[in-house]
Design goal:
0% strand; elongated; single chain; 87% helix
Length: 267
């Protein structure tokens, strides 16, 4: 019995700590929203952060998205070819990329690349007492550090998602042509026929939510970093893990929100 109590206590402590962190991040997001009135005056910082986030992640996003489209096309083509319906590859891949895969893989890349960088940068400032120095000078760290990063990543994530969507479909079309025997013209005709505006704006809305979450978690973990270099490393690692989990969980609930009624209504 004693052997079972200790693991339960450990899990309980971790859940309580995760709940506290989530609550602090929600409060941070609320404070950030209050400072949106200063977004125009901080437009230069926002544009710099958005540019850095987009450019630093562009190459890996293109590579991952292209191979993701190729994998989807190959797997879908192999299955559909059994029934002589390989022309429907475009319908499956284009809808899957627009609704789910493009925002999902883009968000994971940004969480690992940009979110961790935000946590490390702000965490270093926190442990070296630079954040406290800002407060002494009556400068709100949320306005000065957090708000530009949250706004920038909320903007940059949908932009990179559009790139992921386009590149993924190009990769899928190449595989469909060379390995499945579907012409480029047939692929893009079917893609345009089956995808609709709801699929596109759902994916872009997810991307905006994911970008906001990644920046909030990264900045929050950075501001709460303590203990020198070890604390900064822990904050960076935690920001990536928490961002991944929230992206997956929110992805499910957002999909259910937008498409749950279609399932219940039979269409």
């Amino acid at each position: 019995m004693i052997l079972l109590i200790q693991p339960v206590r450990t899990v309980g402590r971790k859940l309580i700590h995760a709940s506290h962190s989530a609550g602090k991040d929600l409060i941070l997001l609320g404070r950030t929203a209050l400072w949106l009135r200063s977004a125009w005056t901080k437009r230069h910082d926002i544009l710099v952060q958005a540019y850095v986030a987009a450019i630093e992640s562009l190459a890996v996003t293109v590579v991952v998205a292209s191979f993701m489209g190729m994998i989807l096309a190959l797997q879908a083509g192999l299955g559909l070819a059994r029934f002589g319906q390989q022309d429907l590859i475009a319908a499956l891949v284009s809808v899957a990329m627009a609704r789910e895969m493009a925002p999902f893989i883009t968000a994971l890349i940004l969480a690992a690349n940009v979110g961790s960088s935000m946590a490390a940068e702000i965490g270093t400032m926190a442990v070296s007492e630079e954040v406290e120095a800002l407060e002494v000078m009556s400068i709100d760290p949320v306005r000065f550090l957090v708000m530009p990063r949250v706004v920038a990543l909320t903007i940059a994530t949908p932009m990179l998602t559009v790139v992921s969507n386009l590149v993924g479909n190009v990769g899928a079309a190449i595989v469909a042509f060379f390995q499945i025997g579907v012409t480029f013209q047939a692929y893009y005709q079917n893609a345009i026929e089956f995808i609709d505006l709801k699929d596109i704006y759902t994916g872009l809305f997810k991307a905006m939510v994911f970008g906001c979450v990644i920046a909030t978690v990264g900045c929050g973990q950075g501001l709460r970093a303590t203990g020198g270099a070890i604390g900064v490393g822990q904050a960076t690692r935690t920001s990536v893990i928490v961002s991944f989990l929230q992206i997956i969980i929110l992805g499910y609930f957002l999909t259910s929100l937008f498409y749950g009624s279609d399932i219940q209504g039979g269409g």
